[in-house]
Amino acid sequence: MTALVQPADFVRPASANGLRVLERSVYRGPHLFSTRPMIRIQIDLRDLEQWPSDKLPGFTDALLALLPGLGVHGCSYQRPGGFVERLREGTWMGHIIEHVALELQTLAGSRVTRGKTRSVKDRPGVYNILYTYRDETLALAAGLAAIRLVADLLPEPLRKVEGLQLLGVAPLDAPQDVRAIIASLQAILKTSALGPTTRALVEAAERRGIPVARLNEQSLIQFGHGSRQKRIRASITGDTAQIAVDIAGNKAMTKQLLAEAGLPVPRGVVVRRVEEALAEARRLRWPVVVKPLDGNHGRGVTTGIADEEALRTAFELALQHGRRVIVEQQVPGNDHRILVVNGKLVAVAERVPAQVIGDGFHSIAQLIDDLNQDPRRGFGHENVLTRIIIDEAMLALLEKSDRTPATIPMAGEQVILRDTANLSTGGTAVDRTDAIHPANRAIAEQAAAVVGLDVCGIDFLSPDIARPVRETGGGIVEVNAAPGFRMHLEPSSGTPRDVATPVIDMLFPRGRRSRIPIFAITGTNGKSTTARMVARILCHAGRNVGMTTTSGIYFNGHLMAEADASGPKSARTVLRNPAVDVAVLETARGGILREGLGFDGADVGAVLNVTADHLGIKGIDTIEELAQVKGVVVESVARRGHSVLNADDPMCHRISRHARGTIVWFSLNGGSDLSGHLRHHIAEGGMAVVREPGSYGGCIVLHRDGERIEVMAAADIPATLGGIADFNIANALAAIAMCAAQRLSIETIRDGLSAFSISFEDSPGRLNLHDAHGRRHILDYAHNPAGLQALGQVIERMRGRYHRVIGMVSIPGDRRDCDIVEMGQLAGAIFDEIVFREAPDGRGRPRGETNGLMSEGAMAAGMRPEQVHRIVDELEAVDMVLQLGRPGDLLVIMPSAIQAVWDRILAFRPEAAVREKLHA
Q1: Strand, helix or coil at 25?
Q2: Does residue 42 surpass a pLDDT of 90?
Q3: In which region does residue 369 sit, left (phi positive, over 0), alpha (psi from -120 to 50) or beta (all else)?
Q4: % pLDDT > 90, the chain
Q5: Which CATH number fits domain 267-329: 1.10.8.50, 3.30.1490.20, 4.10.410.60, 3.40.50.300?
Q6: What is the pTM of this model?
Q7: Where is the ATP-grasp domain (predicted)?
Q8: Superfamily (CATH H level) for 518-665+716-754
């Protein structure tokens, strides 16, 4: 491949970067751009803005010559050839790279079709290229190859490519050779692709809408979520009885049980020595079959043994695959594999041993090579058919007929290459499902029942499968656990059979749910507390609850793993736990932007509020853009689910336009303060949870289907501090709305919230109180202006009880300057004395800068310099607040290291602090 001739009007730039990769993301769940898993590559194409495809003579023809499959891409025209039209009309390089990445994946064997390319706001020439995938590593490698391939068609110096290392995959060999690219991509796919059986089961589950998770690099798959999940490993299911597998693995025991049940099986015995084998062969009468007792895939099996010399050879071969050997009579008939699922026959395939047909010119080895060129043949079980390998077993079989691989068979001469007809040794399959006689069907189904396998492969010899085996002779020679499906899915001839769907229908009978309820909660503030409230209510309902929060992963309220667990990885951990009946998932902005959601949809999604936090990070610069990110949670709600939104928040009204399911509003302004919008919603029979005015925080009321239901007084929820903490009343409203949407009883909701306190054990770092040494301490994770403002309202209502209010305040350094200054201004208006502190790493800011900006805000609010203290280290700042406190003071501490700070508060002794000060 060479670069195109430069267009006549091409002006060589004074300096050019060509194409430059800026960042990439792998979205594994619903995300800002789509509900589908996608790869995002952000790329700088400024140097190519004036060169769409129609301005580059020969570009389109050269690209189509390399990848003719692009000719069927529909693109926005949604018809074959649509993308070619776009190329000839003129389209941009990012769009072209998107289509090339899709085509390369398809050519490698992973068919995908959907993508989009979008310009990045306020960054001319920068684009997000997005395309779907089935295998992450393959998709990233295809993206890298697409960029290099397209760049190679551009004029110099625009062919330069930078930043490919950000894609996290090694460059492919021979980047200018499409055939080499495809071969490299196929090699990548081969290392991670599922085998035909597992892949068929996964696709059948996906067609049913059942969630699928791969649990290892092999074939261990989880279908469904939590306590409703089922697991498979190839065609072994989680319900397959181990004792049945053991029986099937012991061929002698299998035959004994089948014979005792009156089913046709060949006579035979188990031996350990060749002398015993010879004696039994003479007793059974020739010909006989020799095979290992616990072999599989036809390994070590020799058929048609008619003399002692052949038996000795066969015995030695069988010993290579097991310590004990079966000698049994040879029964007549062709080799059939019958597949029985859940007691019912679903497919029959006649297996034909690997063979070649002579042409009078080519040797057996050459004919085998020709057969192996069939693209359907691969190694092991990767493809529909298996490559034929010349090995000792084949050489021994050829020797019986005085042949070698170098022998040239006559034209039309059939040369059998294997004793057995297994696909794993190169055999082929012919579908016979419609031909099997009812009597033979009944025998197979009884055999599966006798052994006890839910998914059972039966090796059945019969001269004519359409006639009863009692008349023709033949019988069952093996019963197999973990049977392969590929001979039925894509037989060499005959009708393909969908044998995977019956397995999925067995694991998940129609009407049985594969998903546990998912409650997903997002917002700027209140996520953790609301999640804990919902979890407490669900525990009172008798459910086993898995929960994720910024504090960790919990099971029924017990901390299982301490971490910031508000991202997709932690969500997947909960959904994979087979003990979990319901998942309550705090869902933060960062994880959505980085990877998307950790689930494909929620039963109940909630957006609590959207305020100006985290702006200026990851391309999210406005509150409207932040609302889009948080809106992903409710845009992914199931069709019959519920989206819970804050009626008092303007951004939630904006989000509601795209929310799925039934919308449920909550509001602190009920009764006569009810907004016109909410009043209309309730009048139409919509669901809403509101706080109606009254003493001690008012009364919480549920409106549903035109009915008004009093839930409880706000003051009866301990977390509201007797009704003065409006933000926890709002959190309780959201929790009630989520649980009511799932039809939990009012009594259960009331009991759960009544038992939910603001103790450190129930809700660490969220309005925790500790009274000691004549002072009251409040520990609360108010880390942004909206959170501090809400906390300030509570402090204001408590202020009359205390002499002074002293606070330790901080905000992460990656926030905007204006947000940090605002945090200081709010603190200056709330506290009598402040200790500002910083995050340990500064979040990209020099040491002391964040404290300086907050101090600037506090001074602007009227605080004097002596009232403001700056300490970088968090625990040192805590110590200072504790030392500043006196009996009768209220000390408000906003931590990052929640447990460490709480331990510091509990351990503080004023007398020790005084002694230390005097000593210093």
Answers
A1: strand
A2: yes
A3: alpha
A4: 69
A5: 3.30.1490.20
A6: 0.86
A7: 255-508
A8: Mur-like, catalytic domain (3.40.1190.10)
H or E segment to which residue 220 belongs: strand 220-223
| Residue 354 pLDDT greater than 90, yes or no | no
Can you tell me the distance from the alpha carbon of 851 to that of 835, in angstroms, rounded to the nearest whole number? 9
CA atoms within 13 Å, Cβ hemisphere of 302: 30
Q: Could you give the 3-state DSSP secondary structure of residue 240?
A: coil
Distance in angstroms (rounded) separating the CA atoms of residues 232 and 216: 12
pLDDT tens digits, one per residue of 568-623: 999 999 999 999 999 999 999 999 999 999 999 999 999 999 998 778 777 888 99
Q: How far apart are CA 86 and CA 726, in angstroms?
A: 56
- If DSSP codes are grouped into helix, strand and coil, which group holds residue 24? strand
Neighbours of 583 (CB within 10 A): 27
Residue 307 DSSP class? S
CA distance 759 to 766: 8
The per-residue b/e assignment along 604-639, b for 16 or more CB within 10 angstroms, e otherwise, is: bbbbbbbbbbbbebbbbeebeebbbbbbbbbbbbbe
pLDDT in tens, 837-885: 998 777 778 899 999 999 999 999 999 999 999 999 999 999 999 999 9
Taking residues 135-141, report their average pLDDT: 95
Beta bridge partners of 869: 835
What does the pLDDT look like over 270-299, one tens digit per residue?
A: 888 888 888 878 888 888 888 887 776 667
Residue 1 has pLDDT above 50, yes or no: no
What b/e sequence results for 166-201 when a residue is b if at least 16 CB atoms lie within 10 Å of its CB, and e otherwise? ebebeebeebeebeebbebbeebbbeebbbbbbbbb
**What does the domain layout of the chain look like in residue ranges?**
19-192, 267-329, 518-665+716-754, 768-919
- The two beta strands, 19-27 and 161-162, are parallel
Residues 274 and 252: their CA atoms lie apart, in Å, by 18
CA–CA separation, 134 vs 913, rounded Å? 61
- With beta carbons less than 8 A apart as the criterion, state whether 620 and 629 touch: yes
E strands, 647-698, in order:
662-667, 687-692
The CATH superfamily of 768-919 is Mur ligase, C-terminal domain (3.90.190.20)
Q: Are 10 and 186 in contact (CB under 8 A)?
A: no
- pLDDT above 80 (res 536): yes
- Pull the structure tokens for residue 572: 């997947």
